[in-house]
Amino acid sequence: MSTSEFKQAPHKLLVIPGPIEVADEVLYANAHPSMSHVSPDFVPVFGDSIRMTREVLITKSAQPFLISGSGTLGWDQVASNLVEQGDHALVLNTGYFGDSFADCLQTYGASVRQLKAPIGGTVPLADIETVLKSEKFKVLTFTHVDTSTGVLSDAHAIAQIVRRVSPETLIVMDGVCSVASEEIQFDDWGLDVVLTASQKGLGTPPGLSIVVVSERAIQVYQKRKTPVTSYYASWDKWLPIMKAYEAGSAAYFATPPVNLIYAYHASLQLITASKQGPSLQQRFALHKEASRRVKEAGAQLGMKQVPLNEREAANGMSALYFPDGITASDLLPRLTARQVIVAGGLHPAIRDKYFRIGHMGISVVDKQRGDIDKVISSLQEALQEARASKK
Q1: Domain layout of the chain by residue ranges
Q2: Per-block average pLDDT, block size 10, for the chain (391 residues)?
Q3: Do strands 63-68 and 208-213 pair parallel, antiparallel, or not at all (unpaired)?
Q4: Which residues are noted in the entry as substrate-binding (predicted)?
């Protein structure tokens, strides 16, 4: 069977904020025959995946790390390689994942200060500047799109402030729910680390931790005074591996997820338009269009967004409060009955009051699938039915 002949089995439409639907080409690549991780056939696939990862982040010189693990492993990589005991870290907290990143940094010995936004809001830029002027930080971290709130932070503006006020501070962005669905200009914005995972905008099954690191951050890691505090997440172990595969030769520390790398490679070919398809900028525009459609449909149904400011709402997902009188048990099972899988609430303070829809990747880019149409019509029907059942 060839790629063009393969079609995945019928299934419920998965529109949570990750994992997301994957293209037939990607799923087919994941079913590649079992292959040695040091095979001459696999080496260029891994090497090309490293190079194409740079294309997605729009960077020429940053170092990608592709390691078996979830997006959470990215936090461990940052904390164990860039932070030493007692180093100060500033965490901009826009939801659940800000709390978690802070917890990880503290686990590795960082002294963490948090600036917490109100639910649905972002940290004011003026507050960031004030704190940076009052205290020195080794790293500043923020979540580009916090999946718990659907809030999009202004990565470019944050980076500009850090570069101007505290240029020695490393800028670390959690892009798990933003890479490939939100515009990211790694080099032009002056980012130092972007961490992400395979199962969201990158359109690949879960299981790959993807971290992209600037030359400046690599130098900070190489000059650390104490040993790296993780074994598996150590760049001492992984940097030679990434360098080797990109140079065209195999190397070994721990076995990479070979089949998943094949799948990731297939998805990257679609995203970077090395196959026929939209350009990266066109992909971002398609995500904005889908986001607008879903959010407008929600508003017409009486669903208020969790983000307080429309300009700070993610393009790859929507977080919507239930209308008055409607609960998760009223709506979500009715969507499932229509073969549409959305996500319940995650932020502990409002968990039962809202739900989340993912609209990224192939569901957005391939309009012929009709995924966004199906989400909107199913939402309309399920809510009408839920309201009728209350009467």
Answers
A1: 3-18+278-390, 24-272
A2: 85 98 97 95 98 98 98 98 98 96 98 98 98 98 98 98 98 98 98 98 98 98 98 98 98 97 97 80 96 98 98 98 97 98 98 98 96 98 96 79
A3: antiparallel
A4: 356
The Cα 327–Cα 36 span in angstroms is 50
User: Phi and psi dihedrals of 217, rounded to 5?
Assistant: -65, -35
Q: Hey, what are 191's tokens?
A: 């980012």
Answer for the pair 359, 298: CB distance below 8 angstroms, yes or no: no
Residues 253, 248: Cα–Cα separation, whole Å: 16
Tokens of 269: 């070919």
Asked if residue 92 lies in contact with residue 72, where contact means CB atoms within 8 angstroms, the answer is no
Strand partners, 135: none
Is 356 annotated in a binding site? The answer is: yes
212 pairs with which residues across the strands? 64, 194
Contacts of 362 (CB under 8 A, 6+ apart): 20, 21, 22, 23, 203, 369, 371
- CATH says 24-272 is which class? alpha beta
